[in-house]
Each structure stands twice: as structure tokens, then as C-alpha cells.
Amino acid sequence: MHAYRTHKCNELRPTNVGESVRLSGWIHSVRDHGGLLFIDLRDTYGITQVVLPGGHKQFDEVASWRVESVITVDGKVVARTETTKNDKLPTGGIEVVIDTATLQSAAKVLPLQVSSDEDAGEDVRLKYRYLDLRRDKMQRKIKLRSAVVSSIRKRMTESGFNEFQTPILTASSPEGARDFLVPSRVHPGKFYALPQAPQQFKQLLMMSGFDRYFQIAPCFRDEDGRADRLAEFYQLDVEMSFVTQDDVFSTMEPVIGGLFQEFSNWQGVQHSVTQWPWQRIPYAEAMLKYGSDKPDLRNPLVICDVTSVFSRPDVEFKAFKGVIEKGGVVRAIRAPKVSGQPRSFFDKLNDWAKDQGAPGLGYILFDGSEGKGPIAKFVPAAAQEELKKVAGIEDGDAVFFVCDKESAACKIAGKARDKICDDMGTREKGVFKFCWIVDFPMYELDEKTGKMDFAHNPFSMPQGGMEALNTKDPLTISAHQYDCVCNGYELASGAIRNHKPEIMEKVFAVAGYGRDVLEKKFGGMLNAMTYGAPPHGGCAYGIDRIVMIFANEPNLREVYPFVMNGAFEDLLMNAPSEVDAQQLKDLHIKLDLPKPKIKTDEAA
Asked: Rounded CA gap, 202 and 215, in Å?
């Protein structure tokens, strides 16, 4: 007989009755029923009930073992009576009567309950993550993650891609976020950087003659944490040679769409998946209609521009007029068939807008011949008719307004669109809705410095190439960049890359980077382009966000085995931690720590 088990804890059935078996696992729960000891024995596969009769020579010993202790039991399989069967368990038709029991490892008093999903607080859960991960809910989600990665690998291989690994220790580069730096012992004063993404290496693989590459790639970004972003994360990194944007889309849609179809029922509710080819929405249109470059298309509400209506001479709403005269815009969100809503529905939305920093959320309700509401009296009948046409208003609809400078109006209108949808309860359920956001701007102005900078990936090919760079206002140039969006989450970013050194030099020059900076930061890739670089492009899908959507979890920490808290502290491994003086000396580093703030009596 095997040293620890003949069966896993999910395997025994009534057909095994009479067999002598050995099981090992954790004590999930213990119940003493009048001298009979019932133990739910758990391993990663399931639970089997084992029974120790009263008067057994080990009864007192086993009764003293705490839950989560690891034990091995030998015994005989017996059938449960009709009244004691448990149809909720695959093994609920049998139990094992213990002959002998061995304590493999004793457990102390638990800091959190493993047998339930009782909230123990994030700090406790992360400090004792190995206990948290024993919970059924966490086991299922981490196994889901494994299954998703396995499916992705299979799908990518079947699509003709080769999996390659790229370096973890590399050079620092300006890619939008702050790098994690690693000091070099053998090169004093110099640092490696952990990759924010394998961007340069995957492009170099294309220049090395490999046609299709993918990798489940670890990425590192030293930026503030949030629910859907971690300092360390994994992505499906993809690159292809001799492709257009259409080729990237047609290749990845069956891979990702097929993946979502495979796991569409994981939550226990069947979800439909957008049939490919997926809708393509230009960036400017997405920002206007949805107030976001990652729109949730389950929300049927659409934003429209009604600046022209409030610019009319017969409209006397000064609050909007003054903003429009200073270059502002008015955005409107139509809420269909809300005439039956109580006044509190509108008042709560107005209060919500004020909490968001807006003056409010004005509206007009069209319920009858004339509009009603706080703004209606400022908009005469002719202007109301124009408003109906522009916003597609029907009787019984309301239209909500946001007025501000374009970027601010876009942001609050996007939030209002989602808030109104949720308050109305009209967000579609049971669907995974995909789209591509395309034609991102190549450049943007930094609001603080007024400096021209890259809007997104600096390695993208500008639409129009060198001619556009030489003749157009940089802020009007679009890039061959795209995002894949599902249910309001950005799942992937990608681009058709710049493969011409002269265009790359010009692209960086427009953003204020001289050739010396280009050579220093990206000299390897720039030089590789001079030896024949194929047209190429690709994308990267966030593995963690995909799993998060399947598991219906709003927080990435819930789909990752070992994670840091929101302050980027690993409470289990006590990282980051101080290092001793010799380690710092070996690295030629002296600490210059900020001085602790001294509280004055008044401040105290």
C-alpha cells in the first residue's frame, strides 16, 4: 500500500464499499456525536467523511487534534444510510471507518477560518496566505488561473507561435511607468531594470527572423497600486512579422474569443461571447460616445455633443454659456423611459455628480409637450426640438448634461453614463462584450509642463509615416495602436511597430528626445533596424485581468496565489526589508533616507 494514500479525497464511491483504503489530508472539521467522532478529511481534490467509533484505542488522541492538522487514516469503506447521505458531496454516499490514524503534522490555533469564507481582513489573509489559499473559493480561482494559462499556451501553439523567454534583468527605458531598479555589484553605480514589458526584446526577435513569438511574460512597474493593477503581473506577450493591424486582429480574436467561450460558464452562469470579427471604435469616437477608451458595451447609454444647442442665441443658460465661451463643451447622456422615476432618482444623481467634483448633473425630462427640470426653462421650444434630434430623445426620456473643458467633460460624462445605467438597472448581464479601440493619438501635451510627449507606446508606427511627421501638427497624428476591451476592462494593448530607423529617430525628435538619448536608451534596437527589419506588430493581454473577469472578482489579489497589499508590502515574506551593511557595501550603495517628520505640539 502507498505510504500516504490509495485514493484522493474525492474518489471513493458506493462501488468501493468493503475496500480497505488509506487517505491523507487536512482535518477540515470535527464533530463529536455522542461518542462517535466524524472528521471531514480534505485534500485539494475534495472531502471524504471518516469516522472513529467510540471506545477506539486512539479516540482521545484523535479527538485532541486541531482542524487543519495533516493526518493519514487507514480504514474500511462503508455505505451511509439513506438518512445520512450527503448529496452535496461526490463522496456523500460513503464514509470510511478508521482502523488507525497517524498525525503527520499538527496545526496551531488558526488565525483565520479555512472551512468558511468568513472575512478575516486583507492583512491577516495576506500574512497567512498559505491558509487563505486552502479555502475552497481560493483553490478554485488559483486552479482557474492555471487552466487559463494552459489553454492560452495550447491555443497559441496551435496558431503557429513559438514560445520564447526574454531577459528579466535589462536596461531602464522610458515606457510610461517607473522602473524597478536592481543595482549591479560588478558594475558600481550602474543598475539593471526589471522589464515593464518585453517590448524591445520581442521586436528584436522579429528582427532576428522569428515569425511568430509569444510568452507568458512577467512584467514589473513601480507605480501606485489599485484593485486592477499590481506591481508584478503576467501578460500574454505576442509579436508577429509581416502583418497588418487586420492580421493581428484576425489572429488574436479566435484565440481570446475561444478562451472566453471555453470559460464562459465558470461562474455558474452561461455567458455569451461577442462573435468575431469584433467592432472597431476609433479612439476619438470612444471618448465622445462613452467618455472612456475602455467602454463597457453592456451599457446601452451613449454620450453625444450638444454644445451647438447651448450655443444658440435663444438659449440663455449662462452657466453653460460662460464655459462654452472659454472653449468648453456640453455633453449629454440620454436616459430612455425614465418619466416614471421618482424625483429622488434625479436628485441622487445630482448629489453624486457633486461628490465627483462637478457642479451637478442638470437634466431635462421630456414627458409631454414641453421639457421639465431645472434647465428646461432656459432652453426654449425650438432649442428643445433641436436637442431631441441631436440626442435622439423620445417622449418619456430624460437627458443629463455635463459642461466643462473637453477633457474634464469627457471624464465626468463617462462616469455619469455608467452611474445612470446602474441606477436604471439596464446593464446587460451574462455577456462578454468585446471591441477594439483603434487610432490612438501618437502624441499628447503634458498638462503640467506643456511638453510634447508620447501618448502611448513610443515604438508604434505613426499613421502617414515620415510624411505625417514632417507636415502635420503632431497632436493630430494617429498611431497604428489599438486596445482590446471587454466589459469595460482594457485586456490588451498593441501596435504595428515602427521598423524604420529614420522614422524612429524622427518620432523621438518630435517628443524632444535627441539622437544621443535614442542611442543610449534604445541603441540595440535602433542598430538592429539598420540590418533589415521586417514590418511587424503585436499586442499583450493581461492574464490576471482575464482571470479576474472569469472569476467575477473586482480585485486582482483574489486571483493571484501570493501578492502584496495595496502599499506594496509582502506581509508573508516581510518584503521589502532592510539589508545588512555588508550587502550595501558590496553594491557600493550608501543610504540617504528621508528624515522622519517631527510632530510639533500643535500638530500633535
From this structure: 9
Sort residue 354 into left (φ over 0), alpha (ψ -120 to 50) or beta: alpha
| Cα 580 from Cα 569, distance rounded (Å) | 19
How buried is residue 447: exposed, middle or buried, by Cβ count under 10 Å (0-12/13-18/19+)?
A: exposed
In this structure, are residues 460 and 442 in contact, taking their beta carbons and an 8 Å threshold? yes
Q: Which of 252, 134, 230 is nearest to 177 (CA)?
A: 230
3-state SS, residue 76: strand
Contacts of 12 (CB under 8 A, 6+ apart): 21, 48, 77, 91, 94, 96
The CA distance from 317 to 309, in Å, is: 11
DSSP state, 210? -
Q: Which helix (H) or strand (E) holds 480?
A: none
Q: What does the CA dihedral 509, 515, 517, 518 come to, rounded to 10 degrees?
A: 80
Q: Compute how many other C-beta atoms are within 10 angstroms of the C-beta atom of residue 433.
A: 20
Q: Dig out the grid coordinates for 68 from the structure.
A: 487543519
Question: How many whole angstroms separate alpha carbon 80 and alpha carbon 50?
Answer: 11
527, amino acid identity = N
pLDDT at 604: 41
Low-confidence ranges of the chain (pLDDT < 70): 173-176, 225-229, 598-604
Nearest Cα neighbor of 255 from 278, 233, 232, 282 is: 278
Residue 478 DSSP code: B
Phi-psi category of residue 281: left, alpha or beta, with phi > 0 → left and psi -120 to 50 → alpha? beta
Sequence-separated (6 or more) residues with CB below 8 Å from residue 30: 37, 38, 39, 40, 63, 65, 67
Distance CA 373, CA 391 (A): 17
Q: What is the DSSP secondary-structure string of 10-70?
A: TT--GGGTT-EEEEEEEEEEEEEETTEEEEEEEETTEEEEEEE-TT-TTHHHHHTPPTT-E
Backbone angles phi, psi at 495, to 5 degrees: -170, 155
Residue 510 to residue 320: CA distance in whole angstroms? 36
Residues 277-320 have pLDDT tens digits of: 999 999 999 999 999 999 999 999 999 999 999 999 999 899 99
- Whether the CB-CB separation of 163 and 210 falls below 8 Å is answered with no
Please tell me the distance from the alpha carbon of residue 167 to that of residue 198, in angstroms, as a whole number: 8
Q: What is the pLDDT of residues 370-404, one digit of tens each?
A: 889 889 999 999 999 999 999 999 999 999 999 99
CA separation, residue 129 to residues 27, 39, 196, 477, 561 (Å) = 18, 24, 26, 48, 8
